[in-house]
Fold each of these.
Amino acid sequence: MEAGNILTSIEVMPILISFIKIVVVIFAVILPMVAYSVWAERRVSAVIQERVGPNRVGIPFTKIGLFGLGQPIADGIKFLLKEDFTPGHVNKLYYWLAPALTMVPALLTCAVLPFGSELFGEKMVIADLNVGPLFVFAIASLSVYGIVLAGWASNSKYSFLGGVRSSSQMISYEISLGLSLVPVLLIFGELNLSEIVREQSKNGWLLLPFWGEGAIWNGGVDRFFLLFPAFIAFIVFTTSIFAETNRLPFDLPECETELVAGYHTEYSSMKFALFFLGEYAAMIIGSGLIVTLFLGGWSLPFGLDAYLMSVSGDPQQIPWWLGLIHIGTFLAKVIAFILFFIWVRWTLPRFRYDQLMKLGWIIFFELALVNIFITAGILILTRDPAP
Amino acid sequence: MPITVERPKLTLLEKFYFPAIIKGLRITIGHAIRILRRKKKVTMQYPEEKWDDNMPEYYRGAPALVTDEHGRERCVSCQLCEFICPPRAITIIPEEIPSDDKWSKVEKRPKEFEIDMIRCIYCGMCEEVCPEQAIYLRKDYAITGHNREEMVHDKEKLYEIGGVREGLVNKWNKLK
């Protein structure tokens, strides 16, 4: 067959649109958000501790400070210009591979997150997979390899201990992470994240079912009683996300007081920055996942979506301004959740390692397991058996 | 005989852990709100805001030489400060005052008087030991320079910082 025939047989437009979506989401949304969540972390922690935080770096060569908004850019330039030092005692291949292996899965997981409803008839999700949460778990569990490899390849006792801790912690919490999600999937009967959000937009968020068919006065008795298991799932899932992303109070892989810096002790310059970015990217994706599953994703609360759709006229086509509102809503929710992450970090002290394992294996694992049965029981009692 | 320390008995609510987390979150957000509403101000923005006005009387800044009300150098080059100086920051080269000078009866004055501000520890012993009340610790604290030579204060610089000090000052005993 001629090359031209293959090219014409492939639809170019969908690939091009996906490409545009990937570039925009990664380079215009996630990476700036990562950089600025570092800035937010520093400013919020400063405010909590009654300090000021970075407030100087603005436009270069002027006195304009802009609340220190130039700080992440200056940090990035600093990381790029630093000497890229590889210690002599490391395993070179894995040492170089590890930072990329932490960064890439964190960015890959954003492929299935619906960050908006529709814009010009195009679904605002990079890959509309029917196995969204499973894809996220599959890819997110890869990021542990980066940390283990970093700890092993660094050939240093601190890195090694950090890597070992991290692997056991992430594997333990992945169990409760996965199990806590089963009730949510039972309630929606759906594994497609876009569909889950659309359902929440129509019939009430999982944690706020007070409009549409989900409201108790509209016959949504099941959703009202399901609030209890949903809340348990939310707590377990959120805490497990904290543990998965190695955030305080579960940041044992890199706890400074014991392990210098944990698995990235031997890293410097951009390779260290990749670990750093991967960690924050994982935090952003985690917040996005929590928002999508429990807090309605891009949807506006209290049936505002349906109202705005009725205002626009055409019930099938979502107008562009509503699409933009949806994207803004999603970003606002994610940012709020990131601020919550930061707030928790600067409030709670670090867990002891045995406490961490006890919490994961003895409390959350069982709680998530029992929660599945509670949810299933409520579903049997309140919903009509499927025809 | 080992002593067993009983762990505190936790109530059910404390074992549940979440009330404690919420309490902690309330405390931190309280601090954040207080600082955001500018109810409390802790940090001073240094180069723009300085604490010069709030400096206490007893502040020990850069040591400096002073002249008296007639414009005479008070220092008579006794070199006591040079001997007492713990980090040996002071170097004095004395000089006889020529007989045709107005202050020839004072007999001695420093030809060169150098304080190495890299070595100075601002202890104030030179001020304490000086019998002529010629050296004082002033309130200058931002002593900077581009190289080591710039950080050595010579006589001219010391008088420039010190200025004029009139009358006798009772340094320790107010009754004297």
Amino acid sequence: MKAIVIIGTAALLLMFFVLLPQPHAPLPASSAAAELDSNSFVLGPVRLFDGEQWRDERYIEVRDGRVSQLHLAKPDSQLPLIDGNNQWLIPGLIDGHVHAWGDALQQALNFGVTTVLDMFGDHQFLVAQKAARAGTERTTQADIYGAGTLVTAPKGHGTQYGMAIPVIDAPEQASDFVAQRLAEGSDFIKIVYTSPKALQRFAPSIDLATLQAVITAAKVQGVLAVVHIADSPSAQEAIAAGADGLVHSFFSAPVSAELLQRMAAEQRFIIPTMTVMEGMIVQQINDELLLQAPPPQLTPAAISSLQQRFGNGLIPKQRYQLLARNTEQMADAGVLLLAGSDAPNPNTAHGVSLLVEMVLLQRAAVPTLQVLQSATSAPAKAFGLTEVGYLRSGFKADMLLLSQDPMQQLTTLLQPAAIWKNGWRHQVKLPAANPAISAGLIADFANDVTARSGALAASSDSMMQGRSSAEMRWQQGVLQINGATRPGFAYPWAGVAWQTADSMETGSNFSGITGIQFRIRGTPGQYRLDAFSAGSFMPLSQHFAVTADWQTIEVPLAAFNGLNTEAVSMLLWNGPQGEFQFELDNIKLL
Amino acid sequence: MTSGMTSLAIYQKEAWYDLVSVWRTPGFVLPALAFPLVFYLFFGVLFSPSGSGSQAAYMLVTYSCFGIMGPAMFNFAMSIASDRAQGWLTLKRLSPMPVSAYLLAKMATSLVFALLIILLLFSAAALFGEVRLYQHQWLGLALLMLLGTVPFALIGLLLGLTLSDKAAPGVVNLLYLPMAFLSGLWLPVTMLPHLMQQLAWLWPSYHLSQLGLKLLAMDQGHAALLHLALLLVTSAGLTLLCLLVFRRVIGAK
């Protein structure tokens, strides 16, 4: 009897559980973020920074690549759920100061920089990339907003890069000049200005009247005008002239109370670009944060760029303290600060240097919340961006998931747990290891001008509008170069270049090489061998004397101090000043 | 009959009579069964946005948790306190029945009530709340809630051993209701003020409900092992305390 009761109860219980209703559609199982192939989903639970502040909401609903809603609890939704594991979610970062070309936008996205503001570059590149930013298509690159061609004086800063650009020299041209920039596709106007009161003038500058005229023209035509300055008087005059923002800070003098007050009251912004200045003065931050164990996303070219220094190194270290103090005071005064790297200038690389900049801002005693804003909501506010910079309804689902609290550990930004661009999970494609090159003969010109790896070609500054020239031809088992080195370009060159690999972007790995040997004779004089790291356009040079008789020259690789031997892109033999002819033979690596 | 069977019979009889004596106390049975059911129907079903099973499912977990806590805490705390006061505990200890039979009987009663509450709430959820779960989720939740009675039974035991029979009901209520609220059993924990959300970590009921919600992928996302470990540590600590107090109680008598 007892047994029957027990069995009966058990059977009833079993029946109860069998009869409980089951879902018809499969439950939205929580899936690993990487598996999802859609830009509509719910992500959570996360701690959420919306660009401005930390929110109470724990779940974010993304539809078609845009934030649709934030929720306190898991919303009732058919959308797939991505487990946020209570990690930290912040908007994709905005680099407020870059110069983008080539694969810059891909490099940026690999570090979670989902939007860049280009402060001078090829307007055709800008126009070509701009189209993508309006939608939420799947992409491997960051969005770009840009100034296109900058506004500078004849021979002013910006003209030295070998790209022929229009220049301005009188206020009357301002309106047309701005109109032309807008017609080319510029999103805003960037002006280079140095005050006559500045202690150092590195290049010719437009005058104050022209600066005022250009700023006015920009305002009339409905766009922002931002100004490149490098010193305190120029900053004061630019702000007084009505500039919306300054795209660099300065370390020439402490920032004046008047400038602070005015910038804060009139809501002008500044992009201090401390990273690039750190590279001029201190040159430690990259070694500390990045180069000990370089993040795997860094390309060899990017590493070269991070190792590169501005030549002189003569600026006293205290100047950096002054820069940091200026930054702190601006933050204190309530001036809108934007994080910007100025990549790919020396000491910087796309993407990663924005993270370095944020660390430098934090070390300059800018509160961490403001540091996070400086790369999210602040640039959106400053430049009137309505698609990015916030995780709020309607904004693009450009997001970073961080495994640590950035308020406690800002460097967690260097290794985001996940990156979403336009709501698509971005899979970082790691750069392939460079092919190693082995010692031995590269070219003996016995039958032709081919090289064992890469290729040889005549090269001169004529490609950068310089006045030098070079031609090469194969003659009786040697390589003959005829040319002339003439002043005109800032760094004149003429000779023959060996591109060491098929790609200039990657170069070859020279780790196993100790030196370069070659036979040479020609017009007697001082010749120069330049070595280039991938991603760098600044050569490292070794000089040698050439005579009319054949001689064998050996240059140890170590002589090129600072060369990234893991990514050597080019070796360039330059002839002497004036007209020359030389012959090259038996190029070997040792 | 072997002595083993005899002692098994003692365990069975003690459990049966404990259950019968509790069952004959309507003042215990009615609130224990009705409160969670009515609350759940009210907050989980009626107030739930129509066509959405998700709030009803979330609340099913939290009110199940709320439901199973009650009988465990009350049965242990109140009957042990009154058994002590009326001298029953002394009498039972003088009888050949092992003390463990006495405690396991109380545990069995708590489990029966927990099971009844689970059956009631699951039925309400399925019939009125449009809750649809996979079989492993229904079963997993039921098993979790049955096992989850242990820490609350231990809390009840501790209170029963220390409080007078007059103080016990009041003190249990004073602990039960705030603990349920602060663990997010009545309202989702995310709707509580930030400080309370952090304090929720103190309560075993928070960890039990989070484990239950994890089965439905509705938890706050902390590691299951962390919740489990905290529950085990709490239970171990309570067991230790109970043993100490029990020795003292025996010594005093």
Amino acid sequence: MALKVSGANPKKFHKSQLKFYIFLIPFAIFMMLPIVFIFNHAFKPLDELYAFPPRFFVYRPTFDNFVNLFQLANSSGIPLSRYVFNSLLVTFSIVFFAVVISTLAGYVLSKKNFKGKFVLFEINTAALMFVPIAVIIPRFLTVSVLGIEDTYFAHILPLLAMPVVLFLLKQFIDQIPDSLIEAAVIDGASDFKIYLKIILPLIKPAIATAAILAFQLAWNDLETSILFTTSENMRTLAFFMNTLVANTNVVVGQGMAAVASLIMFVPNLILFIILQSMVMNTMSHSGLK
Amino acid sequence: MPKVNNLGEAAVEIKKDPPKLQSILQKAKRVNKTPYLFLLPYMLLFLTFIIIPILMAIYLSFTNFNTIERPDFIGFLNYINLLTQDEIFMQYVLPNTVLFALIVGPGGYILAFLLAWCLAQLTKGPRTILALIFYSPSMTSGVAMAVVWTIIFSGNQAGYANSILMRLGFITEPLIFLQDTRFILLIMIVVALWSSMGVGFLAMLAGVLNVDETLYEAGAIDGIKNRFQELIYITIPSMKPQMLFGAVMAIVNTFATGMIGVQLTGSNPTPNYAGQLIVNHIEDYGFIRFEMGYAAALSVVLLLIIFVFARISKKLFSES
């Protein structure tokens, strides 16, 4: 490697990288400010929320806003724990089942030969463009025809098939050498055994990515709560937090809304920090031809 | 190596090892059904909640449907009304959508690529931290973060944007940003761009990092002089698949964040339709006026717009 031409993925810091920092840091500050702001705002005591001129940073952090939020939720008849329970149940079911059905489908689409395989994958690729809110009305009708409104199924089933997740998993499974599977076939392994013992252990990074994408989608989803449920105690945390956000005119409400955003945001952030190297590994196979 | 089906593979095995003939043939036959079995759960849900709703939208777009009576067939009337009668669509919704989509779509995409490319020029530690910062706004899909922006742009003098502008002397009276028709679309675009560094951005970052280094060396020998030439002649051509994936994600993101106007202003329709995008128009007709047939026609138009955008990206980045 005598010729050093490209600076991509450098090992050490060099003065020539400074210009990139100068370009990137203003953007980073712009992207980060609202998030830093939420963290500060959530811990502000009442007088600092009222402060004029408004202050960006918190001076005397308190948990008042958290306490207020819990009290408000309890006084509205449905305890916050109910929304939290709903959200956790729905989110974990979606993550688990989405990973199971997508890995199963990804395995056969990548490694098996059967009629209609390419057509199916092409349709799924086209569905990458699918925007659920574009067909919000037929989805609503489908749910009511199936008779699953106002049940946990209405939260879970509509979100399980995620074209992006299947796409990323299939692309990742393509990297596994065929010889590995052929060897297992000769040893008499069944398809399910190959899936369980060979495919799943080898695609951990892609599974992590699938899980994180499914988590983000499910945890933040409002569509199912707004449209597919009618009773208040079937709704999720995202929905409850969103109704709070709608009442941000009152200054006290601002503090609680900031807490709400924080509660919605932090789980996503922690998951991504833990899994980020696996996500980057998967993304390098994300190419679309 | 040529592709072979299961029976073909079995035949090869049989030549190598004749005594296994029976068991392998049996297996090959049984195996042929399992692909469909494995696909079944995904495909069933995919059909029910993605394909059928799209087909239903197309069917309903040719009907008059108020959710109570049966839909009755009216041909192209919804589409004709859309083009000739719907003044709000032509005057506000369509121009807003086009402007929003052009800036947030290609604009956000180019920004995502530039940021990804610059990040790739840094060492691993700072790169990871900066990538996390860029990606984090998209984690909450923008909507949950609407609260931050409503506080920042709140309409009294205690609002952060107003306070800063007044202290700097640009304005003397606080502006009611989120109800002011002059600012709504602009603020929506800023928020959408802020939250647009999602999966596509990560894919492009991975793409830049994975370009074969020997290509750069070969390029240097062939007379590539600077980073810009390197970018145009080597980096982009060798990461076309990621570029296309990023483009598709950018398109989807653009239309999926369309609800943000309603989130920020707190009402549908947005004040004076200033932030009304096609997705809000669909919701307005579907769930406020209960004209489901017309709303379905709008959905079909939206799907067509997305499809056309995606076709264009495919033309730009397809290999060969």
Amino acid sequence: MIKKIKDFLGFDIKADKYKLSNDPIFGMISDEKKPDKWVFSTCGYCGVGCGLYIGVKDGRAVYTKGDPKHFVNKGVLCLKGLSEHQLINSPERVTTPLIRKDKELVYDSWENVYSKVADEFKRIKKEHGAKAIGVISTGQLLTEEFYTLGKFVQLGLGTNNYDGNTTLCMASAVMGYKQSLGSDGPVGSYEDFEKADCIVLIGANIADNHPILRLHINKNKKNPKIIVIDPRASKTAQMADIFVPIKPRTDLALFNALAYIIIEQGWEDEGYVKANTNGYKELKKHLQNYPPQDVANITGIDIKTLYEIARQFSVNDAVLSAWTMGVNQSVMGTDTVSAIINLHLLTGQIGREGAGPFSITGQCNAMGTREGGFTSSLPGYRNFGDKKALSEYAKIVNVAQEIIPTERGYRYDEIIDAIDRGEIKALWIVATNPLVSFVNQKKLRKVLAKLDLLVVQDAFMSDTAEIADVVFSAATWGEKEGTYTNSERRCNKANKAVEPLGNTKSDFDIIIEFSKYFDGVNEMLFPSWNKPLDAFNEFKEVTRNQLCDYSGITYELLEEYGGIQWPCNEQRPLGTKRLYSPDIPFRTKDEKANLLCVDWYPMSEPASKKFPLILNTGRTVEQWHTRTKTRSMDILNDLAPEAWVDINPKDAQELKVKSGDRLSLSSSKGKVEDIVVRVTQTVAPSTIFVPFHFNTQLINTLIDDNFCPKSGEPNYKQTAVQLHSDEVPDGIEFKEEQRGVISYVKIENEEIKLKEREI
Amino acid sequence: MKPPIENFVNYDADTGMQCGNYSIDIPELKDGEQYRFHFDATVCIGCRSCEVACNEQNNNSADTKWRRVGEMEGGEFPLVRQLFNSMSCNHCIDPECVKGCPTNSYIKIQKTGIVVHNDDTCIGCHYCTWNCPYEVPTYQEDRNIVTKCHMCHEKLDVGEAPACVQTCPSAAIEIESINIKQWLEKDIDKQANMPNLADARITNSTTRYTLPDNLPDDMKEVDEHILKPAHSEMPLVFMTVLTQVSLGGFFALFLGEVMSILGFKGVNWMMALLVMIPASLGLLLSALHLGRPFLALTAMKNLKTSWLSREVLALGIFVLLMNIVVVLYYFEASHRVMLLVEIFTLIVGVFGIHAQAMIYRIKARPSWDRITTNFKFFGVAYVGVLLLGFLTVIIKVSEVAVPLITLAIIGSLLQLFFTYEDLKTLKYKDKNEYQLKRTARLYDENFSKVKQFRFISLILGGIVLPLLVVVLLSSDSYTLASLVMFISVVLVFISEISDRFLFYSTVVSLGMAGGFFVGKQRG
């Protein structure tokens, strides 16, 4: 009472709460949050991989501060990094193992949930075979955890129906690198942004998704020419000297035309091509199918601009291409990656300072799972089916060769289909949330309901965890130790700053403990493993002499140098800035890169009378993925609390809506209601944009299940949709547009066919 | 072996820019120089890291944003331009917050030019939050006071980088020094302005902006669709109206005193008491809108530049003098003494209401900053005249009542005209037409019923019913006349309250562009 009166009269201005204090490490900071200690670590959000320190006070994380010594971020951090300590005590955390009893998820002990799941797995294995167990993991874990998980799933549970959410984001880059250069592995360094004369950003909205990369562009003192290729004038497009607003999904044709022009004009680096590549002749012939005029019609980019972009590859000493989801999330994602690589191979823009085709990764440890995850390859970039690699691996880890899979199992989308067919009976999902992130949500929800057992291992109560039969409550960033590898192959150390919240355990501990419920598995796979370092040490041996060579890396070195880029070994004790410099040959058999003849196809479901607009999806800087981490942090969530739809003023006028109004969207797959309109010129007429983060307006309901046949990556970026406003419920009218054609690619009876190649 | 964590304050982050570094080299200030922000809109990517860094540094919760990022858009696809404005305090050369603060709680530090706020003396009156054309100061609910960006001056003093500067991945925010004279004479008009931001000349803002070339002319703020009424400030609604009623009543009292020389019936102490009550009540109420009412009396500290201090002092004395007048009437003091005291009281009262009106004549809030504000404030006086008229009807002195009521009707007509004019001029061409049109939209879209009530009640209570009273008085129907008069007084009082409510609720500040969802992050 007295306090209330005092408060009303304004006696207390809480000066103590807001006063500053001098911290010996970081200078003046908030006194109330002044840490007792600072713990060296790495950010757990995106693939940039920023170095930071976690401030800990009385056992709670209270601060995150950028590490000024770290190569990646040199002290700066983005808004999610700056507030990252807040996620540890988020109300969204799952704090104890849960098990479904009478339709409710209730608390249970670790022993009970382990044995329940182990018993079910064993039953299913006995009745339907080991492959009736599917596992979908993530790019969020630490490398040690990926390696441990992959080894357990493939060699312990004995199923190769194991994939990660990286298939939703990086798979096309992986497969593109593999088919063009012989191996996965992003070629460049962030330093290349500082050294390039020309930077081509393709389908990469780094302003929202990788803001810290801006630092490296800013550091570039050469005033580089920036080309942004994107159907949407994103925040990133604002950086562009040349903005290339291509029509949706015409990117591959554009790159083929650029290659055409380079060859036509004699702009290629003949010496480089001869010495380092295969397939030049075939490519030259193939490109005749992509004359600039035809491609100009398809892409909506005039010939002059096409020549201007192509010219940049020849007039500049160093050209860097960087891409992300705009390229990867495509039915022809893999080939588009190769078409980009073609440009760099033709002009010798690779393996040098400031030059290269650079795929930027999405998640903090997408790379860790690519290298050690055991999903699309055997650990250490060993290809499935390669007998030598298999026996090598078996020898290193001391297991029988017979238990190592010889081929890749089902990919993400194939796992879902196999559940649908009743082939897979149990699914273990680790740190990912398909019920927001996967395509065709209606179907997915139906399919998941068919499972005998759904196990979700997560630190947060995700939409998928909510329908699980068992939830393994995992520790999260800041509560566990290990390494993350970022886009530029830099292995970074993440440390444990605080004890895992409540009754949670690190993913490493969960897997090791869970493996003990299977006879002999723990002893065989994880003999005397009890800390992440044990996994890391084995992983180092597994990667020795591989392209992703970690053998020279130690935890101590990582802390001392702020991360090290693989390959790192005796010859390269402090790592390697870029791949495919003269001393690092391509990983093909003849050590030459492949110039590949890749083809563009029109969209299988273009805009039509019923669905006259093309929907593009993406992200916003304030949120992370499916928002399980960020939605309860007011400082982030307030800035973007729900999804919105970007609509061009022309379409808005037709729909009689203005900014702030609400409408619904439909596609052939479903409907999304109650989404707020943002009228903006950042999207072209007849195209719209919606961020995918929000379960409140679940945009992935609309996305068709179309996948790149080579990578399995979904085609998130183009979906034909209609908008329904209150005033115009039938939506807008389809405007037949003179769509460009390439004589070589024909559409017959709605089937796309390539003309017989004239040889 | 783990390397020891070293002191990062003096570590060179090798960015070649101020960003990343926990300490920065800023030039030693020479005479006539001060520190300022530079914001480079050509490199900002709108990531809002600066907003979060500021809150983390200062321990502010998500609803207290000292630094905000505004977004604008112009042009046509694909030649569209998105423009971001990250802004905290512009550490102006002539800051309105300093001038207006009634408690002298703002200090422009002599040496550095940084404008800092003294939390201890702040009474939470909100006046600076109105006054600043950039809406920089923000009221912090949990502290009962206003707070604002201080350029991390304690950090700067020891060479440390402000949090926003340290974290910006684009080095879009930097600290510089400027020569004040040169800035004012030459550079300010070219370098201190930003679309959708108040003219830098209002306060002589110091922030230097680097803008992209060829900005489209049609840059629009992305939060245009967010149009919310401003705080209704109910204690102030009552305070202002009540003091203005008192002034009107006292004016009538004074007229009566003058007329009594000519032989009209004298004024008595009850009348004097009646006109004094509203202002006394009003002043008490006004303390309620403060975050720290117990410090209300300190609001008189800045008579030199603050209209708020002047208002508080003048109206305080006004009420005091009116009390003396009551006492003088009670003891039947002589005419001469009465007249002298009353003239003085009236002058103080008029100055008080003038000061009160001038509080709102601020460039930051265009709908207030019009002459109709002054007219309407004084215009309320007719209610006081009517109130006194009511008393004369009750005590059945129709020879006083009729002239008073007639005077009140004239006053009502004037107030009606001012109100009409006030609304009409909202739609005039003006350099602030964007804000004025939004005020007009609030009147029409959010408060059309209140607006309608305002006019009907004013016409009915201020003109029709008083005319009826005059007729009734001529037929000596005092009881009925008293009743009608009562209704009339109540009606016009509510009418003025509703108009004042609209005055506060419909104001639209100059401010800055906001975000699509969060808007301006103010109020």
